[in-house]
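Two proteins were folded this term; both appear here.
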Amino acid sequence: MLYTKIYTAKNPEAAAKIAADQFEAAIKQKPACVIGLATGSSPLPLYRELIAREQRGEIDFSRVRSANLDEYKGLPADHPQSYRFFMQENLFDHISIRPENTIVPDGLASDVEAMCMAYERKIEDWGGVDIQLLGIGHDGHIGFNEPCDHFPLWTHEAALTEMTRNANKRFFDSLDEVPTAAFTMGIGTVMAARRIVMIITGADKAEILYRAFFGPVTPEIPASVLQLHPDVTLVCDEAAFSLAAQKTV
């Protein structure tokens, strides 16, 4: 909590506007900036807001580069539940970002180690991530860095816990179709970003928000490591912040 800036809003849409202000400022300060992006339900209001702002001429994505946090292992880019498909449908197809300036881990990589190393090198070649967007899982995972006994450093293959697979099964026809592994940026990759913006919304995230930002730093709650980053902005709605509000009065 030492460095974290916290903004609370009445609802997810209001929270999205606060988060969008952070990304708009970063893009205006550095038009060719590198942004780290996330998938899931939490970023969707933000992506809608960013699309609207470019359509109004307030921001310009034409020189921006983006690197996504993760991708399911075994899903091709055109699979409706792949994260590449998600990004195209919810952001990339609606803004001026160039396709060659968007990278997502290759879900079909045959040489996993080589793909992960190349992903790290690409981010490094771009000069590193200027501003990284994060959500949080109910167990505190960021990207697909699940609770474990250490903080994984670099982009790697991660086995998905039953909690994560069950949380994501709503997007598939059955639990059996949910991938059992994914490729994800490591905690070290995430922490190397110059700035981090985390969005947490909904009462169901209130407990993990409190544990991640007001509890001990531990790899059993991967997001807790953000307490050690020098520039983190937490944007949440009142429902998500409700437990922290009660316990930190």
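Next, the second protein.
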Amino acid sequence: MGMDKATLQKLLAFGIERGVSDIHFEVGYPPHYRLHGELLGAIKVPPLTAGDTEAIARMILEERGTPVDFTRPFGEIDVSYALATRGRFRASIFRQRGTVGIVMRLIPINVMTIENLNLPPVLAEIADTRRGLILVTGATGNGKTTTIAAMLRYINDTRHAHIITIEDPIEFLHEPGKCMIIQREVGSDTESFKDALVAAMRQDPDVIMVGEIRDRETAATCLKAAETGHLVISAIHTPDSVSTIQRYVGLFEPDAQDVIRERLGDSLQAVVSLRLLVAKEGRRRLPAVEILRVTRTIRECIRTGGRLADIPDMIRKGRDLYSMQLFDQHLLDLVNTGLISMETAIYASSNPEELERNLRIE
């Protein structure tokens, strides 16, 4: 079968109908689909040739107007790709062993609510914050983007605000609600996260969403935006609250870190960390969430660097008053309410031995 637009669209449409999360196109294999966490090969499709994957990459990049020479080495390319009104994908195009590979992640058209996603209701309260920095963290594919989109949707549904998003690439399209929303894509609408952020501060926003903090410039500009009376929401690749604070400070030069700790202590409002788990009935995935809300005591811990180790205990104790929670507290709840299995919880836990003890006590 020749790889033309109709064939590609058929393969993508099949994935959308089945509710897959990712589609893989690699030379030597038929297209593979990830469904509820499992990777499955498409049965009636022959293995793809180098020409097939190259053709797919070309079709995805067609709209961009920047040709890529696939015969020479190229960096990874991340772009969004829409299939008419049926779905959007985040496509990652890369080279491996001299051929082109593509992984496409399906992005649902409609933005889910905090409730639909089974996220803790306190996320609405966190999204109500008027200024400062909120960080959403977790490994790739654990729902950071979806969670941030749900928080923006909550703001869009509940109050009049001007929201600017800076994304690479744009994933969810926000419909006009109570808010004015400007969405800018790095690469096509603006040069870099930092440039767009600096411009955004001049565009009178209430809320700025930055797709991801990957470097010192973005981290510094986000901090500045948070200090000047904006609410900044961004994602960072870290497993939990404490490692998020360490990573943020660690993006700066060692001699600047003490000052950054103080500024972060003043600006940080919350850290929401995610791990997606397979639900007991297997047909869906549920988030386990660690939530840090920055209280006065926690501000002091962040400012003085050496006291970060006290934070997990403060989260544990801040549950009733502030709806904070450690991963293991949430995992325990999810097991006790029968949503996930004990094995799943222990596997996802930060502290498996302790979790097992607590599961026995309950």
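The longest strand covers residues 268-278. DSSP finds 14 helices and 13 strands in the chain. These notes refer to the second protein only.
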